[in-house]
Amino acid sequence: MSIKPGYTRPLDLKHGRVDMTHGSGGRAMAQLIHELFAAEFGNEWLAQGNDQAIVPPPGGRLAVATDGHVVSPLFFPGGDIGSLAVHGTVNDLAMGGATPLYLTVGFILEEGLPLADLARIVRSLAHAAREAGVAVITGDTKVVEQGKGDGVFITTTGIGVVPDGVNLSGHLAQPGDAVLVSGMLGDHGVAILSQREGLAFAADVVSDSAALHTLAAQLIAACPSLRLMRDPTRGGLATTLNEIAVQSGVGIRLDEAAIPVRPVVRAACEFLGLDPLYCANEGKLTAICAAADAPALLAAMRAHPLGQDAAIIGEVIADPRCFVRARTPFGGERLVDWLNGEMLPRIC
Amino acid sequence: MKYVDEFRDGHAARALAAEIAAVVQPDRQYRLMEFCGGHTHAIARYGLSALLPDNVELIHGPGCPVCVLPIGRLDGAIALTLEHGVTLCTYGDTLRVPGSGRMSLYKARAAGGDVRMVYSVDDALALARAEPQRQVVFFAIGFETTTPPTALALLTARAEGLNNFSVYANHVLTPAAMRHLLASGDGVALDGFIGPSHVSTVIGSDAYADIARDSGKPVVITGFEPLDVLIGVRMLIEQINQGRAEVENQFIRAVTATGNRKARQVVDEVFALRPVFDWRGLGEVAASALAIRPEWSAWDAEVKFGLTTHSVADNKACECGAILQGRKKPQDCKVFATVCTPDNPLGACMVSSEGACAAHYAYGRFVSKEPA
């Protein structure tokens, strides 16, 4: 990065494309790093220009999370793969009660990707990182031949610090606890589907992609009995709650009528033969706490801009089989099972 | 959602459940088969069984087109993509259906096959138009509801001279399957049918008249919404109580006695009856499926690619046939929840989440062992 430009012409961020030289370790790569990545991410650690970032040890326990991002399309209503790569990892840290500090970013670029797209993604990633208060302290770029990638893959690793006294974990849910969600479910999944080639439909849905660390911090402060938080991304709320039920050795009973879903998301799912409980979210969390503290936790969620539609949606129950079930508005109950294979639309 | 929520109202459902409880005769058993997967889905999704008296039993029928797709035909689809190199366009839920040797379209895709999920046959036509060098095959499955769009696509392909488009036809017929269930082997342990919803918009309620008459079992054409199902159940119970076996229509907002003549004309123009067709779970069923007429063979993938499909028998231990006839329960089957699971289904009833065995695997185990 500190190689002083031997090139004469700046990157053509308007019409240029990623080619194999951008991953070869030569000048073209140095130029890409210098003119795009360093320019956008700029911070003291990145500026050291070494193979590693050396940072002072933060006080407290370290939280580390890594997440690979492969999304098609790269740009979608409400975000893009750049912002998503920050939010996904920051949220994984925040769900453990960590304050996110640093991020590493690995790009796998496909030959032929317009540099304008890459610049837009990098700027979005940098913007999201600044908003989330994390510094991109080291990174990597590789280029694969055309046809061997899907434009861009981004892997981010986040490092955060967990304050003393904060102990959140998926195995801490207890019978009698309350289950909450921070807002409307399924927005991200439906926003992505609405843009997919072959499925494109007009739905006014925007991805909920957002960094949840400030919301998470407020919830920790407001609720001493908070057992755990989790962001229901791939597989949706249904999958996340099944994971928690197994981890804690409990059952979960939801009140279906209480689960917040936007009418347009409900309609799109109806139309596509999908269930909003299995649709991905990128800016929502589910939290479990002692029933007595649930009103306070709900109030804390609703006091945050990202939690205005929060709701208490169910309770933890004793069940050695670890089933998640939902009370339907009809008075019946249905099992909210693990997703079987991939989420596929029904034909009939 | 307007015009949908009205049919999912919890208060109305509880009122209907009370009406049903009031009309059932406690000393008799009501075994009602919902033929369609759409009904099975509504029943599981809204927990309708829990609203019914104990002596009203809902039996899941073979009306899930994905589930009854036989292994041999699925092998054909896999061969089209892997051996003939075509681009196979398919409805989403066929992707994970197991064929021979644990193969599926998912795995065919991973093995390099070009398999694309489409929402409609129109998407396949559009792909064929956009990429004339590509051989596009539409994997046509489904009952009478999905057949007219396939027929229209063939008309369009011929009109446009789309020679790189063809159809692998696997459309099946509802009344034939109902007759087969009623006629075969040890007979059925059923007292009435919750009749098909969308299928009946095409074929009309009259299509079931001889079934009700000959079998002495009532058929109530019923919509797919939960309140529809409860009303259909009440209508069936009333017929059974009165000793009637008629075709009645609960789904009057969409189904007429004669159905959609235009749609059937289009289907007749393109398709002819197959003498026999394999159904997963039921075996060979006479006159139960459609083939593309010889004059349309230029668009028939089976002819075009010289596809020979073999009949592959279901696993011997599989009890799908008896389960679909209401004679056995999923838990009576030796392979249920052992060799045959939702992740590795053997029989039709386990393939889709709507199948009787899959529903029992997920939901039935849960209600039957509910702790006090």
TrEMBL record, chain A:
CDD domains: HypE (cd02197). Residues 49-162 form the PurM-like N-terminal domain. Pfam families: AIRS, AIRS_C. Coiled coil: none annotated. InterPro entries: HypE, PurM-like_C_dom, PurM-like_C_sf, PurM-like_N, PurM-like_N_sf. Residues 174-325 form the PurM-like C-terminal domain. It comes from the Bacteria. GO terms for biological process: protein maturation. Belongs to the HypE family. This is Hydrogenase expression/formation protein HypE. It comes from Rivihabitans pingtungensis.
UniProtKB/TrEMBL annotation, chain B:
GO terms for biological process: protein maturation. The keyword Transferase does not apply. GO terms for molecular function: 4 iron, 4 sulfur cluster binding; carbon monoxide binding; iron ion binding. InterPro entries: Hyd_form_HypD, HypD_1, HypD_2_sf. Keywords: Iron, Metal-binding. The keyword Endoplasmic reticulum does not apply. Belongs to the HypD family. This is Hydrogenase maturation factor.
